[in-house]
C-alpha cells in the first residue's frame, strides 16, 4: 500500500470537470483513486486538498464549489516530440476507463499549454491520436475528433444494420461512435419549452437505453432539440455571407459517471453528426448548448469533426495516492 501524496490539478471544460494527475506519480490503483476523489459527496474540493492554491481562472468557472469530478485524467507528457504529445487515460467515477473524452481532451490541451506555453499538441487516446490547439489566451481549446461512424461494428451495436431512429427501451435513438458509443434522441422542444428536453427525467429514462442489449459496451445517452437549423443557404447566411451555425440544446447521461453531466464533448459531436444524417440542420457547423456552456462543432462530409469550447483551471493541491 502506498501512502505518498500526489499533486492533483482540477480543470473543467463547460462544467465537465476533471482531476489531472501526472501518470508518473505512481498511483497504484487508479480505479480506487477515481472512485474516491470523484465522489460528489465526499470527493475532492479546493477545501479538502492539502496546500490548495486557488490559482484558477477568475471567469467562466461553471463547476466551482462542486466536490468531486466527472473523471481523473492520468497524463504522460512527451516534450521531445514536435508538437508535444500527451498520452491521455480517463478513469471514470465508477472506476472504468473510457477510450475517448472530448471535453477531457480539451482539458488535456489546456493543461499541456499551462506546462509548456505551446498552443498545439498531439493527444494519444485509446480511440486514436487527436490534434489539439489552444487559443492565444489559453481560454479555449479545439480538438480534432475523427469521423463519426454509424456502422454497427464501430459503435458497437449488436445487429447488422445501423441503428437509426429506432425505438429502444422507450426512446427513439440513433447510435453513433465518436470515440465512445452514443445514443442520440431528438425532441421537439428545447430548453425553456415546458414540454422540451428539460421536462424529461433523464436519470429515469437513460439507464434502460444505456444498458440495452443492442449496446454490448453500453452507451452514453443524449437528448437534443434543434433550436435553429442554421445553414449555408441565402436564409442561413449572416450579413457577411458566412454560414450561420445551427443551435442545438443538449443533455447527456454518461456511461461511467452513471448520471447527467454538465457537458459532454463526444456527445456534442454525436448530436451534430446525427442531426446532419437525419437532415435536421442545414450546414455542417453547430453550437450545442449543454447545461454547462456552449460548444462549437463542425462535422464536414469529407473531413474529421472538430470540437471547440472554453476550458478553465480551478485549483491544485496534493492528495494521498491511496485514498483508503
Ligand atoms: N465527457 C466525455 C465523454 C466521456 C465518455 C464516457 N462517459 C464513456 O463513454 O464511458 C466527453 O466530453 O466526451
UniProtKB/TrEMBL annotation:
GO terms for cellular component: cytoplasm. This is Diaminopimelate epimerase. It catalyses: (2S,6S)-2,6-diaminopimelate = meso-2,6-diaminopimelate. One of its GO terms (molecular function) is diaminopimelate epimerase activity. It comes from Halorubrum rubrum. Its main location: cytoplasm. SUPFAM superfamilies: Diaminopimelate epimerase-like. Signal peptide: none annotated. The active site is at residues 101, 264. Substrate binds at residues 16, 92, 102-103, 220, 254-255, 265-266.
Amino acid at each position: 500500500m502506498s501512502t505518498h501524496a500526489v499533486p492533483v490539478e482540477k480543470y473543467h471544460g463547460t462544467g465537465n470537470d476533471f482531476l489531472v494527475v501526472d501518470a508518473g506519480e505512481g498511483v497504484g490503483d487508479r480505479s480506487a483513486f477515481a472512485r474516491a476523489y470523484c465522489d460528489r459527496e465526499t470527493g475532492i474540493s479546493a477545501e479538502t486538498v492539502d496546500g490548495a492554491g486557488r490559482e484558477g481562472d477568475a471567469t467562466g468557472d461553471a463547476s466551482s464549489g462542486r466536490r468531486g469530478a466527472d473523471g481523473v485524467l492520468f497524463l504522460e507528457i512527451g516534450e521531445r516530440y514536435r508538437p508535444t504529445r500527451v498520452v491521455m487515460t480517463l478513469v471514470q467515477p465508477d472506476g472504468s476507463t473510457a477510450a475517448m473524452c472530448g471535453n477531457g481532451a480539451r482539458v488535456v490541451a489546456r493543461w499541456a499549454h499551462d506546462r509548456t506555453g505551446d498552443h498545439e499538441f498531439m493527444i494519444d487516446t485509446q480511440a486514436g491520436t487527436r490534434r489539439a490547439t489552444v487559443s492565444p489566451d489559453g481560454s479555449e481549446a479545439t480538438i480534432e475528433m475523427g469521423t463519426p461512424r454509424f456502422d454497427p461494428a464501430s459503435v458497437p451495436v449488436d445487429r447488422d444494420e445501423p441503428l437509426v431512429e429506432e425505438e429502444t427501451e422507450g426512446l427513439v435513438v440513433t447510435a453513433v461512435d465518436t470515440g465512445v458509443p452514443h445514443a442520440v434522441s431528438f425532441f421537439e422542444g428545447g430548453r425553456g419549452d415546458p414540454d422540451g428536453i428539460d421536462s424529461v427525467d433523464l436519470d429515469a429514462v437513460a439507464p434502460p437505453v444505456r444498458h440495452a442489449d443492442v449496446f454490448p459496451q453500453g452507451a452514453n445517452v443524449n437528448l437534443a432539440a434543434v433550436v435553429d437549423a442554421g445553414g449555408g443557404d441565402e436564409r442561413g447566411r449572416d450579413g457577411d455571407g458566412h454560414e450561420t451555425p445551427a443551435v442545438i440544446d443538449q443533455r447527456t447521461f454518461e456511461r461511467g459517471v452513471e448520471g447527467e453531466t454538465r457537458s459532454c464533448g463526444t456527445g456534442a459531436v454525436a448530436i451534430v453528426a446525427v442531426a446532419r444524417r437525419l437532415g435536421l440542420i442545414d450546414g455542417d457547423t453547430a453550437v450545442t448548448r449543454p447545461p454547462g456552456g456552449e460548444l462549437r462543432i463542425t462535422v464536414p462530409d469529407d473531413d474529421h469533426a472538430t470540437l471547440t469550447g472554453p476550458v478553465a483551471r480551478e485549483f491544485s493541491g496534493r492528495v494521498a495516492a491511496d485514498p483508503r
